[in-house]
Backbone:
């Protein structure tokens, strides 16, 4: 996928001016950079959630799955139900297995999200993004709020269930990059 001459303003504030980048299809790319450099904005542009100038070509699919910084789960549903809802009746793998692989228990994946901790919700949100049969997964600070063991287990699930998909993720955490190796693109202003 290629981004050419991306320009984005919020009012008078320029976030990008003529930004160009290449993201290899079927691989992971980590966006790094200073706070406020535009990592979240760039993910939102790729997802089609922001108006911008420039072009995006060779997208792996028209629809992207997105792990936002906020989990955006339906709190009255369980982790399983949230994931099945994202699958639209056609899960591309065993959702229960994926949730359990992140370290969630059988009880936790069946309980309403309102009764789970922030880390448990985060793991469910990540698995939910893996479920649709899309070739593009965007993740904004995916492992925030997870302890080291949960990060490692969740990263293993991502690598297993998103194999061959294009992943573009932002992070401030160098350990996240070690857990899911890929290219690194520092988008800090030069």
Residues:
């Amino acid at each position: 996928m290629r981004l050419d001459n991306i320009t984005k303003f919020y009012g008078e504030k320029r976030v990008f001016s003529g930004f160009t980048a290449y993201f290899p299809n079927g691989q992971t790319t980590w966006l790094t950079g200073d706070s406020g450099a535009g990592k979240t904005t760039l993910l939102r542009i790729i997802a089609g959630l922001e108006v911008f100038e420039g072009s995006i070509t060779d997208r792996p699919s028209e629809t992207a799955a997105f792990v936002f910084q906020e989990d955006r789960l339906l709190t009255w549903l369980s982790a399983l139900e949230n994931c099945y809802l994202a699958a639209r009746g056609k899960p591309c793998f065993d959702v229960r297995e994926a949730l359990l692989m992140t370290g969630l228990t059988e009880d936790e994946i069946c309980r309403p999200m309102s009764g789970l901790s922030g880390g448990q919700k985060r793991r469910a949100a990540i698995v939910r993004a893996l479920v649709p049969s899309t070739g593009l997964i965007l993740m904004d600070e995916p492992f925030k709020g997870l302890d080291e063991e949960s990060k490692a287990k969740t990263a293993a699930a991502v690598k297993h269930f998103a194999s061959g998909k294009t992943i573009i993720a932002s992070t401030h955490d160098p350990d996240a990059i070690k857990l899911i190796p890929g290219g690194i693109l520092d988008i800090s202003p030069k």
The mean pLDDT is 91. The chain has seven helices and eight strands.
